[in-house]
């Protein structure tokens, strides 16, 4: 593992499926994911919907032109170092899309988190478990 960047460990979708995240236009959405979130395209499809499979580390997500509302979806990404993840995003030029850090509790786990809203409307939360 490269210790200069955050490692994505796991992803939980806000709605049903992290492999079918809705976007209006896959082609126009991809540059944000490649440039700012450092995913790369591993596959594209035209049916049943135009889609792209993206990967970063051992984690995959999918973007689809499936008619869903992107403002109601996204993912929570568990990372090994939330500060590094934040710094990486800032280094790629993201500023207004980034929230400040906050602390949230889900079940019995405390998380240090920040949020990003992509231009396509999908919201992503990056979080690290706290002791």
From TrEMBL:
Task: Give the SUPFAM superfamilies listed for this entry.
Answer: Glyoxalase/Bleomycin resistance protein/Dihydroxybiphenyl dioxygenase
- Pinpoint the VOC domain residues: 15-129
Q: Which Gene3D superfamilies match?
A: 2,3-Dihydroxybiphenyl 1,2-Dioxygenase, domain 1
Question: Which domain of life, per UniProt?
Answer: Bacteria
Write down what this protein is called.
VOC domain-containing protein
Q: Provide the species name.
A: Danxiaibacter flavus
């Amino acid at each position: 593992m490269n210790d200069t960047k955050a490692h994505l460990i796991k992803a939980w979708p806000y709605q049903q499926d992290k492999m079918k995240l809705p976007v209006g236009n896959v082609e126009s959405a991809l540059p944000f994911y490649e440039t700012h979130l450092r995913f790369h395209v591993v596959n594209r499809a035209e049916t049943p919907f135009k889609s792209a499979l993206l990967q970063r580390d051992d984690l995959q997500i999918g973007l689809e032109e499936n008619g869903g509302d992107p403002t109601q979806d996204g993912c929570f990404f568990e990372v090994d170092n939330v500060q590094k993840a934040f710094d990486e995003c800032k280094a790629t030029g993201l500023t207004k899309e980034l929230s400040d850090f906050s602390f949230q509790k889900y079940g019995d786990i405390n998380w240090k988190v920040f949020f990003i809203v992509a231009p396509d409307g999908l919201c992503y939360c990056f979080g690290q478990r706290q002791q």
